[in-house]
Each structure stands twice: as C-alpha cells, then as structure tokens.
Amino acid sequence: MADILISGGSVAGPALAFWLRKYGFNPTVVERAPALRDGGYKIDIRGAALEVVERMGLRDEVERCGTDMRIARFVDVNGKQVGTMSAQLFGGREGDDVEIMRGDLARILYDATKNDVEYVFDDSITALEETADGVRVTFENSPPRMFDLVVGADGLHSNVRALAFGEESPFIHDLGHYISIFTVPNHLGLDRTEMMHPAPGKSMGMYSTRQSADAKAMFLFSSAPLAYDRRDVAQQKKLLAEVFAGQGWEVPRLLDAMADAPDFYLDSISQVRMDGWSSGRVVLVGDAAYGPSPASGQGTSLALVGAYVLAGSLAAAGGDHRAGFAAYESDLRHFVEENQKLAANNLKGMVLKTAGQIRFQMFMLRLMPHLPGKNRMIKQITEPIRKAATAITLKDY
User: Fold this and answer.
1) Domains identified in the chain, total number
2) Which of the chain's termini has less CB crowding within 10 Å, N or C?
3) pLDDT tens readout for residues 264-291
C-alpha cells in the first residue's frame, strides 16, 4: 500500500484522497489552514464532473446543498433594473448541472473521507527530497516523513509546484483581469438572487444563496498585472478600495463592509499552463496543474475529474507511478485544453470595455424573451460549455 501525501484540503485534495483510498492506497492530506476552509464563492459541477460525483455516491448530498439561485438582475448606478437573466443562463448551466458553494463542497468531500484518511491541518511542506525509495518531506510544524509519492493539490499558487518545478511565473498566464469575493451583510434582503452592476472595465455584484443569512460581494476589473503581497490582506483591501473608489450603486457600502469580512479573497484571473504535470515522484492535480481560471467556470469540474483520472491511472498502473502519471496526462490533456478555452470568451461578456457595449448588452437582455429564435440563441451560449464539460469519456478503473 503506497503512502501518498496530498498538499491541499479544498476540493482536488480530498477528492483524490477519496479515490486513492478506494483503490487501496494510503493517502495523507496536509492543509495550511488551521481547519477546513469555509466560505468561497459559487462553483459549478457539470458534465463529466457530475458523473464523478455520482460515482462517489455524493450526488444527492451535493444537490441538496445546491444554491437554488433563481435570477440575475442587472442594475444601473442608481439601482434601477435594466435587465434580467435566469440564474441558469447567467451561470451557463443546463440540465442536471449543479451550482454549490465551494465551502459546502469542501465539507462534503471532507466528511466522505475523514474517517479513512489522515488530515494534518495548520501545516505545510517546506522541502521535498526525492530518494531511491520515495520522497522525504519536511514540514513547517511536523517532523519529517517519508512518502512514496507527493501530490500538489494546493491551488493556483501551489507550494508543491514551486518546490518541484521552480518559480510560478512561467506557468501562470494572466488573463488581464482580477477578481475579489468576500462575505457581507445581506442588507438588500436578497433571496437566491444575483445583483450585477456593470461599468466600463469593471463589474460589481452581490448575491445570496439558499439558506444563507448573509451575502457575497463580488468585484471584477480589468488591469495590467498588479504588484502586491499575496499574504497582506490589508494591502489587498486597500488596493480594491482604490480601484472602485467613486463607483455608484451599492459599492461604497460593500467596500465599507469589506473591513469586517472574514474571508476576503483577491487574485488575478489567470490560467496555469504546463507541458507536464509530474516530476519524478511528484505530481500536480487541479488548479496547481491546469487551473482554467474562475472565468472558465470549470475549475471545480477539472479538479474533480482530474482527481478521478489520477487515482485511477495509478491504480491501473499497479504501483508504477511513471506509467500512472503518463496515463493521467495522456487521458486528461484534451479535457483540460477544451475547458481552458472557455475563459477568454467568457471574460468578454463578464467585463465590458465601454458604456456603449454595456448598453447594447442590456438591450439584448431585454429583447431576448421576445425574439422568435431565443431558444437557439440560448443554446449557442450554453453549447460551448456543455461540449467542454463532456470532452472526456471516464474510464472504469
């Protein structure tokens, strides 16, 4: 039974641990946070990823925790409604696609694995030393340990990737935008409703999901790469306040609430692109290897499918990690590339450059319900997402 260390306890890590345990491996998950990370934003599970959830026996629980969002409302600077869209269309969802809060999915995956998998919270990897028999791992807080394999499932700014492959700059491709999300009081009394206020080069929003007493504020903006300390939250909040200073609608109130937000998040909208996802006995999965960016809407689906394929490939290879890693990359590469293609096109509709483009977009939203070919137009919007989400046939390992 191979001992496998997984760095990252969000989605890809616990999902991988689930499948590794099923195939007879002995996974350990190390997570930098002191406890399971709550919060986060809405995420979608569709296509092949939904099939993975079904095979895990977790689909009913995932659907039970769905956001149940109903409508997206677009408003002007004074809060006047200028357009609407169904929540399904706004999220590019169709059929059985499920939208869930990231924190809820992380909890479901953790609960499904905590009795069979060792979790080490409040710790991180500081060094990896590959030997003839495995990898000697040095931790920030725990004593060194030996593992047969190490997996980086630790996100866009992966620590494991940095240790095994070097600095991140060659692998992270900035898409020219930034995103910030954090919890705020639901002062608008939103109920499964998304409010969006577009402005040239920016988009501001607020939403509240089913059974949620508070709301999430979301800010998107286009920008050249910004220099800031990723661990300095106060600096990031100041940066966001400066970018959105002078904006109308509810922006001043949301920025005021930012000071007390327990889960503030800001980062570039970027993709991870790598020629190979493994080095020796170290391999990457999820955003660490092929993050498609939040603009694609497929990061979670890639993490779930990637975890399934990696674990299955290792099992099918009978303990030969070289063969397992090679099969993992071969089987998943096309699926990754198809889903990463979605991001650039999606961004064009998420953050518009000019006031004229915004007016035209709102005009089309108001016009669409009255057009004879509206179903065909909706199909054109969702079809690329559906094709990407199903661009892999899952093997039975």
Assistant:
1) 1
2) N
3) 999 999 999 999 999 999 999 999 999 9
